Amino acid sequence: GDFCDQAAAASESGDEAVDEPVEEPITEPEVTDGPEEVTCVNGASDGAGGCTCWDDATYFGDACEFTCRADRCNGRGMCRPGTAVCDCDDPSNWAGDFCDQAAAASESGDEAVDEPVEEPITEPEVTDGPEEVTCVNGASDGAGGCT
Which tens digit of pLDDT belongs to each residue from 42-97? Predict the structure, then answer.
C-alpha cells in the first residue's frame, strides 16, 4: 500500500502479490498504579482506595458518610474510637453497644424499659431590659449600646 499498511502476499496461483490489510494489534486495558480514588464525605483519602475519617468518634463508614450520634448511637452517644460500639452520653439511663437499651429499671422493678428520659425544660431568665454598658469613647444610648 501507499503507507506501508498492507502486507504483500502471493496470490493463490503463486505468481503475483496482492495487497491485503494488516490487522491492528489488540491493545490491553490500561493498568493503573493503585486502587481507584474514592470520594470521602467527612474524611480524606487514605491513598489505598479508602477513607480516613476526620474524627472516628464522630464519623464512620467506607466514605465516612455516617455520623456516630445519629446513625449508630441512636442520638444518645458517640462512637468509641477503634471499635463499633458507642459511649453513651447518659450511662445511668442508656446502655448497650448502641445506647439502645434503657439502664433504669421500670417502676415495678422487674425489667428495664426502653423509654426516653425527658429532660426538664429550663425557661430563659427574664430581664428588665438591655444590660448597661460602659462606653469608652461615647455615651450610653440606653438600649445596651454606645453612641
Answer: 999 988 889 999 998 899 889 999 999 999 999 999 998 888 899 999 999 999 99
Q: What is the DSSP letter of 91?
A: T
Q: How far apart are CA 126 and CA 131, in angstroms?
A: 12
DSSP structural state of residue 11: -
pLDDT digit string, tens, across residues 99-146: 999 987 544 444 444 555 455 555 555 556 555 657 777 777 776 677
Number of alpha carbons in the 13 Å side-chain half-sphere of residue 106: 7
Listed as own residue / partner, the contacts of 66-69 with beta carbons closer than 8 Å and 24 or more positions apart are: 67/42
Question: CB–CB of 17/11 below 8 Å?
Answer: yes
